[in-house]
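Budget justification, computational time. The allocation requested in the original proposal was used primarily to generate structure tokens for proteins on the priority list. As evidence of use, we reproduce two of the resulting records. The first is shown immediately below.
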Amino acid sequence: MKGIDLSVKIGNVVLKNPVMPASGTFGIESCEVCEVEKLGAIVPKSVTLHPRDGNPPPRVIETVGGMLNSVGIQNKGLQHFLDVIIPFYKERYDVPLMASISAYSVDEFKQMVQMLHDDGRTDLIELNVSCPNLKAGGKAFGMSSEDTYHIVKSVRDITDKPLIPKLTPNVTDITVIALAAEEAGADAVSLTNTYIGMAIDVHSRKPKLGNIIGGLSGPAIKPISVRMVWQVAQKVSIPVIGIGGIQSWE
């Protein structure tokens, strides 16, 4: 009996199925508990151009139906990704590899995409536009349709690899941002990232997170993310990758 064809196409890359991990949740250690070969794509944690220590602790706290985190994209930088992370996956698994990149300026995004394109071993590139734009007072790129358009447009001519902006849900109308990404040349959009949240320790009367605010993830956010995915799917003609609160195949 012939199996069902679950393959999907994003840009010029065909995935055998649409199942992949969210970038913030998947590291090398995940391979010990996950059948990686069954994935449609591998999406390691977002990387920045230069190494980052991340935010001050505490970084993760439990909430009702989820968790708040303010890890701050701690990572060893793009060169380490090229030297260590890519070889780890490419030598072990015949699965498309998506690099998720986070940057603090358009120039940094361009430099990182150029490095990934020249290296050639990644198959898709996720543009984490949910990260702060330091030249705009820390406001996330993805909160502005103009900034999102500018980033995608600026890197589109650098590479023919599929570009997938990862959108923030912390906006008034996410469809406007998605349409801007599509118009600029994105091959797909992924949504959503975490929702801005905060928790207070009622005994000390202080914030529980060292960074004060963080990103809410977990089962609690799934209905909101599903709603946003549905809204975006009504507006754009490119693929929409749904993220947020997923616990099982159901």
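The second record produced under the same allocation is shown here.
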Amino acid sequence: GRYLHGEQTELLEREVAALCQVNHCVAVSNGLDALRLIIRAYKEMGVFHNGDKVIVPANTYVASVLAVSDNLLDPCLCEPREDTMNLDSREFERLISPAVKAVMPVHLYGTPCWDKRLMEVARRNGLKVIEDNAQAIGAKSSVPGLNGTRVTGSLGHAAGMSFYPTKYLGALGDAGCVLTNDGE
């Protein structure tokens, strides 16, 4: 119980929630499972349905896409910006259709994948924003997120993080967490 479901896990959850300025942090086995569980929760809540589309950057680790496809949703790949290699919000806007229910910005190389256009398009189209925050833990955006915060992991509706040993904040083995302000 020291590392799994014990006092150390609860301490980690509290500290990561505080770092990322969210109300809830739940430790899970890895970053892929964090993203899978977020999408699964939205399916259970009736927000997503089989065949819905989620816009994901074309320049990402396979886990971002697997979290979508494993939940029987369709990944819709969006090209990156040349200067940041993060999802291009201009391209993202062009991909919007009635089938698109969410966008998954992936914060790469310590650089937040967030700008005013991404936020406004997501709001205007009623899209869920699920952050893949495996590579920018603690990074700050110049543009506030949906909740008024600037820290990655709190910009959208929910975020998945990875604590794989090669990440900026690594565990002794594989680990991850789900971040959200949504108590449901």
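A brief technical remark on that second record: The chain has a mean pLDDT of 93.
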